[in-house]
Known about the structure:
The structure holds two protein chains of two kinds.
Chain A: H1 13-38, E1 42-43, E2 46-47, H2 51-73, H3 83-122, H4 128-149, H5 158-163
Antiparallel strand pairs in A: 1-2
Helix pairs in contact in A: 1-2, 3-4
Chain B: H1 2-14, H2 17-35, H3 41-48, H4 57-82, H5 91-102, H6 106-139, H7 144-161, H8 166-181, E1 183-184, E2 191-192, H9 206-224, H10 238-247, H11 252-267, H12 272-286, H13 299-314, H14 316-322, H15 328-339, H16 347-351, H17 353-384, H18 389-408, H19 411-429, H20 435-457, H21 469-482, H22 484-494, H23 497-500
Antiparallel strand pairs in B: 1-2
Amino acid sequence: xxxxxxxxxxxxxxxxxxGVTTVIGLFGALVVYGSVKAGINxxxxxxxxxxxxxxxxxxxxxxxxxxLFNTLREEDGTLFAEWGQLRQVFSVxxxxxxxxxxxxxxxxxxxxxxxxxxxxxxxxxxNWPIIxxxxxxxxxxxxxxxxxxxxxxxxxxxxxEWLGL
Amino acid sequence: xxxxxxxxxxxAVALQPFNIAVMVLGIVLGVIIGVLPxxxxxxGVAILLPLTFSMPPTSAIIxxxxxxxxxxxxGAITSILFNIPGEPWSVATTFDGYPMAQQGKAAESLxxxxxxxxxxxxxxxxxxxxxxxxxxxxxxxxxxxxKFAVYFLxxxxxxxLSKEPPFKTIAAMMIGFALAAVGLDSIxxxxxxxxxxxxxxxxxxFLIAVIGLFGLGEIFLTMEEGLNFRGGKAxxxxxxxxxxxxxxxxxxxxxxxxxxxxxWMGVTPAGATPASFMSYGIAKRVSKNGKNxxxxxxxxVIAPETAAHAAGTSALLPMLSLGVPGSPTAAxxxxxxxxxxxxxxxxxxxxQKEFVWGLIASMYLGNLVGLIIVLTCVPIFxxxxxxPFSIIAPLILVLCAIGAYSVHNSTxxxxxMLVFGVIGYALKKCNYPLAPLVLAIVLxxxxxxxxxxxxxxxxxxxxxxxxxxxxxxIMILGLIALFWSVISNGLSRLRPRAATA
Lengths: 165, 501
């Protein structure tokens, strides 16, 4: 899974860190805005609901400004990650996103089977027999442990209903 | 004296066959969690928390705390054998543990690590047994101002003692407080920061945050390194264990010092990771073998392991006696207490004697059982690492999803888990510490409540936090902790240069 063509380039640490810090600062501004809407002064029962989060939001904005200043001042040319590495990371994040989004519709068991099988085939290049063993085995063990022994219900889809589980 | 009687009752509870079975199961699961990348103490306990919903609370907390001990033990295995720290607190163990393994002294190194872990934990549990009831008795007199002062001290220690830049720690912490504030305001009953989304009515559950930030974030980080994850073999025989044990007593000073560092760092919520680094650093400076550190010195394994385990264990002291967890894992355990309907804090010692002392007794037994299990089963646990990451990773991701779903039976939580996972990856890459963020989500509501109640009593004057000797002392300790790095810099500049060199 190494990508030879792009092994020395990638976004710089400085740029990504500045971006993350800015997002945190904007989050702080959102908190301040929401707090002001909820009321930040004293009401009949003492401080209003927005009183505490308002100052929290201010703290976020102030510390982000300081962090941003420190980041931009640094002379640091190191990479955040190589493009190839980021591709690896996203090749997990995106399928996990699809997996998570499909849970409410097809149930946990079927989604997990497909997810595990995909992961092992695409990133691990395994034979189908091994894939089938793990992809079927894990949900079955999960079913026994969670639903049977510890009585924790998990999301089910049409197939489980059809099987009457 | 009364404590001793209570402790014996506790042992009677912990020694019930069901509780012992739960203890062994917890330790084994914990070691597996500690060995696997992407699963750590905090999210491992969080994922398995729903399994304990159907158990009696005492058995449940015994199992969960034993998972935690197991994870602490397990982290050392991978550090020493493969130079891969399974947990952040075992990074310092790799410095000397891995060179020892390369020189063919893996068994000595593992024995030293496990034994030191045990010693550190034992020291911390004895401290908890003696100190916790006193602290709890003291805390019964706390008003809202004193409570807020304790939270203040806890969070200031994070800023002062963590190795990340202070303003990043503050930013991470404040994000946690902001997330905790989302939803229904507990005092006025008003909605806030929901921006009209009904899903956010109940705010963010920190268990979801823990699973996402620590579990998924860690998997994403590991993916960067690619999938080539190699395993190896390890064996410990009794003769090596005995020989190593014979050699350990000569390092008693290192052990004692590491125990004290660990307990201090665990009680003030700096946690196991800085404790292990600090202990390693001091041992290196003080020991007469200091120049051999990093080349396979057994003292370099003893120091960080003792401190990490002492810190991990003593983190439960403020959780039990004050309701302020000393580490993310302790925070998850605290979340468990709330789910079982137990209110952590001083009243626990009065109202739930059997529970508290059963837990404390199980800490003694759990660590002993843990030591025996890890010493005898190292080959099995090391074999887990030979399972390729492309099989382990999807299984861990599925487990995380199950854990996140079963906290509230909500698929929206699973989506939030993924969001937290991506956030965790980005924050960790940018050196933002995650532990204060999680602790702030847990303690946010309570800290806010204490703060607002105090202000209500004083008509809005901040002077209430310095109104009596008790609250002033805690607040001043907090301020010292907050500016600790500035203070210690100043002190070392005052000292003559020869002493520091």
